[in-house]
Write a structure and sequence with these properties.
The protein has about 650 residues and is of the alpha+beta class. It has helices at about 10-35, 35-45, 60-80, 85-95, 100-130, 140-165, 170-195, 205-210, 220, 235-255, 270-295, 295-320, 330-350, 390-405, 445-455, 455-460, 495-510, 510-515, 545-550, 555-560, 575-580, 585-595, 605-610, 645-650, and strands at about 365-370, 385, 420-425, 430-440, 475-480, 485-490, 525-530, 535-540, 565-575, 600, 620-625, 635-640. Helix 6 packs across helix 7. Mean pLDDT is about 85; it is low at about 1-5 and about 380-385.
Length: about 650
């Protein structure tokens, strides 16, 4: 009598519950601890009125994150573990049910185990909300949003883990490859961007790496679940991907040979993809490592070679399940040739990436700065250095053209943001074009940079004070720099008007050098506006009008660092070892031990030193400032034309 094939198989359901039911129970207990018990604790707490949540994802975020990324993978591994065990595989496939129905049983049960704890937890939260007034903690829409987003993320991770399970015969490898696959888009992009800058002049790795890439990896998206909205493009894409991954899993399962248990990969065509993919990733990773640690081109290429060999060897170990292997140099040679050809194509630049400059007619606005790290994409409309005037656009395009024609790149490992230029064109069609250059001949472009930075438009975009009036200011607080306790607060209307006018005049009169380098830091200025916003400025020696006004009003001595606040100053020639040290106490000790150090202790010389000192330690002469009323010591330095004559005379003797 022939066996009858049915849609629903009781033995299979019993098998599934025995193998994975405990995971569903564990998941439910975890959600109870993360949400209902947490809410109950807050409700019973007498000080609960001070507790607020942005949404339900804010409650026990770490527990929720672990559950979201771990539970779906566990379900996928244990549901399809029969594919990795011959005895279990024979049992399951001997049942009177087709492979497609087996797959639907597994997926349906897995999805059920995922969604049921979410629904039960949501029901408890709804019960709490209906019985107790906790509207400030969460709302009913918050519950539905939490349930929907949690399920969508877990369903996507589950579908990826199922797909990986269809191509491997090892459960441990299934789990490992699932997380690698989920992180792969971001990982590959980071490695590629960080390495391609060595080949393409102007490529800004930092700009692209600073973009929010969380959405392209569920593992990273789960770290910011509170920012995901249920009805969004991201959730729609996640839902589509989940369907596609599950459909692909079904097709692979129907073509999988049952005898391929305990094999790393059951489909031969995937083996070279895994091996060469691992080789590429290891090559890029080690190249990036040696770039960050040594910066020398020779070491970077050495890293590429060692990393690629290591990746190729590890790939063979995984595939052959033994470390005693012989490398197939033919395959490695083919990989090496492919990488060299790819590098040559990038270097030749067939798409003219390195020479592309947008036409002035298609440019909407341009951002210019030293590095993309200062560019905040979230505040695009109020970006501090976006320029729109025709004169500035032309000047920036001319600067860009000269860099392409005459720019000498800084050697790898000598990147210095102080000697770099970053440009971001926003075109009228909404697209952007970013370029970053680290230059040896940076000083060649100072005239053009000065023209841009000293323009009225640029100054207004970087100095918020130039866009407000004295009537907008409610208070100005000036706090002395250094290890002294002095401050002045200005609230009088007339004084506020005069102070704002003096500060605005100084900002408008600043030269390019004064804007990019701070010498003689006297105090910090906090300008409180009527809308409670604060403008921060540093009062330095370039603020001549404000300094004159403070002296005339008799407030300078109580507001800024003065010579009378300092006991003495020790000056020594800057040693690279000192400059590279991160310990301020060690710097002080090294300056004190210099045999030819100079001690400054007269008021006129101390005042001159204050006016010309820069706050960073990279100047030609390092200086330790000792205060009368504090045991703390400040490290500053002197460089260029700001080195006082008496210091030059001392060290030139």
């Amino acid at each position: 009598m022939s066996s009858r094939i049915t849609w629903f198989n009781e033995e299979l359901i019993i098998y599934i519950f025995r193998s994975t039911g405990w995971i569903g129970f564990l998941y439910f207990v975890g959600l109870i601890f993360a949400l209902p018990l947490e809410m109950l604790t807050i409700i019973l707490n007498e000080n609960n009125e001070y507790v607020e949540f942005e949404n339900l994802f804010s409650s026990q975020q770490m527990i929720q994150y672990v559950l979201v990324i771990v539970i779906p993978v566990l379900f996928a591994i244990f549901l399809f573990r029969f594919l990795q065990m011959k005895q279990a595989s024979d049992f399951i496939h001997s049942l009177p049910i087709t492979r497609r129905n087996i797959f639907f049983h597994m997926i349906g049960t897995g999805m059920g185990f995922i969604v049921l704890p979410i629904l039960l937890t949501g029901s408890i939260l709804i019960l709490f909300h209906s019985a107790i007034d906790i509207e400030r903690l969460y709302t009913i829409p918050d519950i539905w949003s939490w349930m929907g987003i949690t399920f969508i993320l877990e369903a996507l991770i589950f579908s990826v883990a199922v797909l990986i399970g269809m191509v491997t015969g090892l459960s441990a490898l299934q789990g490992l490859l699932t997380y690698i696959f989920l992180a792969l888009p971001v990982g590959l992009f980071v490695l590629f961007a960080a390495n391609v800058k060595f080949l393409i002049a102007g490529f800004s790795a930092d700009y692209y790496l600073s973009a929010n890439m969380n959405a392209i990896s569920p593992l990273l998206a789960a770290t910011e679940m509170e920012k995901i909205t249920f009805f969004s493009v991201d959730t729609l894409i996640y839902s589509i991907l989940t369907f596609l991954f599950l459909l692909s899993s079904l097709l692979l399962y129907e073509r999988r040979k049952l005898e391929h248990v305990s094999q790393a990969f059951v489909f031969p065509k995937i083996k070279p993809l895994f091996k060469f993919g691992l080789t590429l990733c290891m090559m890029l990773l080690t190249g990036l490592y040696f770039s960050g640690t040594t910066g020398k081109p020779g070491w970077i290429f050495f890293g590429y070679i060692v990393g690629s060999l290591l990746g190729y060897y590890l790939g063979e170990i995984v595939l052959q399940k033994t470390w005693r292997i012989r490398l197939n140099l033919k395959g490695y040679t083919a990989f090496t040739v492919f990488i060299i050809v790819l590098a040559l194509i990038l270097k030749i630049d067939p798409i003219q990436y390195m020479s592309k400059i947008p036409d002035e007619k298609v440019i909407n606005q341009i951002y210019i700065g030293n590095a993309p790290l200062f560019f905040d994409d979230d505040t695009l409309d109020n970006a501090p250095t976006y320029l729109k005037e025709k004169e500035n656009k032309e000047a920036i395009r001319l600067l860009h053209q000269q860099i392409i024609e005459k720019g000498k790149k800084v050697s790898i490992g000598e990147l210095d943001d102080g000697k770099s230029i970053f440009l971001l064109y926003e075109l009228k069609n909404g697209r952007r074009l970013a370029r970053e250059y680290h230059l040896q001949n940076y000083d060649l472009y100072l005239p053009l940079l000065a023209k841009i930075y000293e323009s009225s438009e640029y100054k207004k975009t970087v100095n918020e004070l130039l866009n407000v009036s004295a009537e907008d200011v409610s208070k100005i607080k000036i706090t002395a720099s250094g290890q002294v306790e002095k401050s002045v607060t200005i609230t009088d209307g007339q004084q506020l008007d005069e102070a704002v006018q003096a500060l605005s005049e100084d900002l408008n009169n600043q030269s390019f050098t004064q804007m990019t380098s701070s010498f003689g830091e006297y105090a910090s200025i906090d300008i409180l506006l009527n809308n409670n916003k604060i403008i921060y400025l540093n009062w330095d020696s370039s603020y001549t009008q404000f300094s004159k006004w403070m002296e005339n009003s008799g407030q300078a001595e109580e507001a800024r660092l003065m010579a009378d606040d300092i006991s003495y100053i020790l000056v020594a020639k800057t040693d690279p070892k000192i400059y590279n040290s991160n310990s301020e106490s060690k710097l002080v000790q090294q300056i004190e031990q210099k045999p030819n150090r100079m001690k400054i202790n007269t008021s006129p010389e101390i005042e001159t030193a204050i006016d010309n000192a820069q706050i960073d330690w990279g100047g030609e002469y390092s200086a330790a400032f000792y205060y009368k009323d504090s045991r703390d010591v400040d490290i500053k330095s002197f460089s260029g034309e700001h080195v006082p004559v008496f210091i030059l005379d001392h060290f030139n003797e």
